Amino acid sequence: MNRRVDPAEQADRHRVATARGFTRWRQSCPFAAGVLTACAGVELVTVVTTSRGVLRFAGAGAAVSWVLGALLLAAGLTLLCRPGLRYFAGMTAVVAGVVSLVQASLGGFLVGFVLAALGGALAVAWVPVDETGGRAPLPEMGD
Fold this sequence. Notes:
Keywords: Membrane, Transmembrane, Transmembrane helix. The protein is 71% helix and 0% strand. It is elongated and about 70 Å long. α2 (31-50) runs antiparallel to α3, α3 (60-81) runs antiparallel to α4 (86-103) and α4 packs antiparallel against α6. By secondary structure, it is an all-alpha fold.
């Protein structure tokens, strides 16, 4: 006998499986840190590209904003795809955020700086969770 599956029931099962997979992936990386850091990069670039009139940015400030925005976006994607590099990407985000205060229109009117600083701090503070639900053991000094 061939049992016929209700399409609505099959869609519900697929939706639940997809949600569980996303949750598992989200918990396996510093998700909030990656999203905040990537948003900081997008914000820095957006401030430069949408500025008109008196707030027009040109020259070195605009170029630095593009470079810092790309660096922050790359750091955010690194945090999402390669959680083992969280210390490097987190510190890169913090340093790029501080540099953006001076070089890129006060860090995108402070919004980009705050997002980069929060994302970097969350990345450095994030600790992976092992399969049993507890915190993974921290490495010993010298390892």
